[in-house]
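Write out this protein's structure.
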Amino acid sequence: LLRLSNDPSMSALSYNLNVNGADANVVIPGIVGGQRVITSQGTINNVVKDLEVVYSVDAESVSFHYGTHIGTGGLTMSNNTRVIGNVFSNSTVSGSNSAFIENDVTISGNGNMLTGLHVGGNVLAHSCNDSIIDGNLTYVQGGTNNCTVSGTTTIQSAQIPSQPLPITQEQITTWKDEATSGGVLGNTNLTGSQKMTLGPKKINGSLTLSNNAVLTLSGTVYVTGTIVINNSAKIELSSSYGSLSGIILSDGVISPSNSSTLRGSGQPGSYLMLLSTNTSNSAIVVSNSATAAIFYTTAGGVLASNSFSAKEVTAHKLIMVNGATVTYESGLQNVLFSSGPSSGWKVSSWGEK
């Protein structure tokens, strides 16, 4: 622990300690998922004791259990849009023109329904209307059903409970404070071959990236105005994030477009999240081959179109058109968001094995 306290990013290491005839074999593995599981096996006179310490980044864990998690604004899909993953919505889910959800759909709330969609998995909703379901359907007593169901159809008496979006306002305030602690800039514009490493930092104004410009995040960035990323511009996490994830958040509209790229550090388990607190129906507008890991709105809508793709979308409202796709990754079930690679570490558990 002393070694790691001095150098949290040190390489994997194993060594032996010999004290008064006893032998201890210590293994410090590499970082996996923002933590190291350190073991020590002590032996003396054929007596063996195993100890284990979990040393982890002091980061915030957020669980994204669905490909899309939608609030009371609902989900609308059209024109060959797809969700490859599960969907949970606190309002009606509707579709048309070959829209497809590959896995399960759960819709909470009295009167909310699935309508006009093809679903590859199971459906749980108050009502089901004009949809094709390859799996099973469960709907609520008092609801209606005129769907084509390949599996079984069941009626249940209990209403389906809602699920809040996974990030609290308290956590968002903490991220804003972390960014502000690094200082404040005014309007920031990058274009052409310009590159910048930034964070933690607050931008009191707008952030614009265009024409292959690159912004590398070394900490949380908070923008009070709009964020525009277009024409092959890129926002990425510093490689020093390792397997940790990072955030850029805005009180304004976020609009990635035209082959812009938004990505984590490059290591498995690292994601970049774009979060907007804007309350308009177009809090995030993403289009034209823009790619990213996670899009999140607290009270506004996400409008996704034209070959857009993402790993996960959580939003008050989501509208998908013209081939937009969300492809869920299982690693999003437990994402560790850090304010930056310099975040502290802590002993999260210890004991005999």
